[in-house]
Write a structure and sequence with these properties.
alpha/beta, six-stranded parallel β-barrel, 3 helices
């Protein structure tokens, strides 16, 4: 009996040790499984938080193209998400990172909207910049976009919105860039890139529709055509000037102010540091020539809306904007200055001219931005040339404005933003 008790005691000890080991193993495995389950749960939460962020971004952008993701994380579901956007013409890629506890997940959403055709808001300025026969960018010239409703152009207010179209050809030389969509009607042979030039996105078989397929002419309003010329001493024009038979001249260092209203001039000539202020809503019809030279300025004040009609169909018009002359729309809202060129002419913004804020519609004319010129707004012309280091910053706010005098009615209106595809984490990986 004693021998049996001696045998059972070691067996009992071994059994206890085995049971203890198994129990500790089960506890260990259970603990690890619990930790893994919590980790998976946190990763799932992070994923769904990221998904919420990207759905929110898409909804906001679809409702308002001027919306941009916040730069700070947004709290949601006990964690947070932060969304970034990459703009490639009309393609926008949203990337949302969801964070929960110590886990993060990332989702990308590719979206697109068709630039569209037909009528809509914005008139002829509603679809970027346009040259019916050609657009040419030379060395280091570029086109991009911004939204004047968000403030001045700058690092936080610029992007790939510089849509550029032609029913003829678009050519870029030597490190020129279009930050937006280059749209040509007849295929890849009509978009040419040389020596480091780039385009963010290309639409090589774009159908523009009216009014761009056949740019309508500029019709000078009949009430402006029939106005008498202003005379010396007109109470709406103050300062030092001379006017004779409709020819307004402002000479060296002199200053005049136009208080607003409708005017018909034969010509306007400004020389050597002279200044013209326009301090109220105004329409100016200038029949034969506009000369701004040697540091002269036309300054539009008080958020005034100013419309200029230059020349007329079948007539000759001579524009000269040279040597740091400037038309300064001080509101920095390009839509507040609208220039319609009715004649067949060539208009050059000369070397080192100060920045221009406005819109130009010149369907039968050639527009050139000479070296280092900057233009904020929109240009529609027969041919458009950007010389070395010049730039156009298209104001996307023009898409949402209807100007009653705009030739041809509404312009090509972008379609709704749609989802192209998602990029999500692999489900299997999220369960590990």
């Amino acid at each position: 009996m004693e021998n049996k008790r001696g045998y059972l005691l070691p067996m009992a000890i071994i059994f206890v040790l085995i049971s203890t080991t198994l129990g500790m193993g089960i506890l260990y495995l259970g603990g690890n499984e619990q930790i893994a389950a919590i980790k998976r749960y946190h990763k799932e939460k992070a994923f769904y938080i990221a998904e919420a962020g990207i759905n929110r971004a898409f909804a906001y952008k679809k409702a308002n193209e001027s919306w941009h993701p916040e730069t700070n994380p947004i709290s949601f579901g006990g964690g947070n998400f932060i969304v970034t956007e990459t703009v490639q013409g009309e393609t926008i890629i949203f990337t949302s990172t969801g964070n929960y506890k110590n886990q993060s997940e990332r989702i990308s959403l590719f979206t697109y909207r068709n630039p569209g055709s037909g009528t809509g808001s914005g008139g002829v300025f509603g679809n970027g910049i346009f040259g019916s026969q050609s657009i040419t960018l030379y060395q280091n010239a570029w086109v991009d976009g911004y939204d004047s409703r968000l403030g001045p152009y700058g690092p936080s207010n610029r992007g790939n919105y510089g849509n550029t179209g032609s029913t003829g050809a678009i050519t870029l030389y030597n490190n020129a860039h279009i930050y937006g969509t280059a749209m040509v009607e007849d295929g890849p042979n009509y978009l040419t890139l040389y020596h480091g030039s780039t385009v963010t996105d290309s639409d090589l078989y774009h159908s523009f529709g009216n009014p761009f397929d056949n740019l309508p002419p500029v019709d000078v309003p009949s009430d402006l055509e029939s106005l008498p010329y202003p005379v010396q001493g007109d109470p709406r024009i103050t300062g030092t000037y001379t006017i004779s038979n409709g020819r307004l001249t402002v000479n060296n260092n002199k200053v005049i102010t136009i208080s607003g209203g409708d005017f018909r001039f034969k010509s306007i000539t400004m020389n050597n540091n002279s200044i013209m202020y326009i301090a109220g809503n105004a329409r100016l019809y200038i029949e034969s020539s506009l000369t701004l030279s040697n540091n002269t300025q036309v300054i539009i004040r008080n958020n005034s809306e100013v419309i200029w009609y230059l020349g007329n169909q079948g007539t000759t018009f001579t524009p000269t904007l040279a040597n740091n002359s400037v038309i300064n729309n001080s509101s920095t809202v390009p839509g507040n200055l609208r220039i319609y060129v009715a004649s067949n002419t060539n208009m050059t913004f000369a070397n080192n001219a100060m920045a221009f804020n406005g819109t130009i519609y010149a369907p039968s004319s050639s527009i050139t931005l000479a070296n280092n010129s900057q233009f904020y707004g929109s240009i529609v012309s027969k041919t458009l040339t950007l010389a070395n280091n010049s730039s156009i910053h298209y104001d996307v706010a023009l898409r949402d404005i209807t100007f009653p005098e705009s030739p041809g009615g509404g312009a090509a209106q972008p379609g709704p933003r749609v989802i192209v595809r998602w990029t999500k984490p692999d489900w299997a990986n999220r369960l590990q």
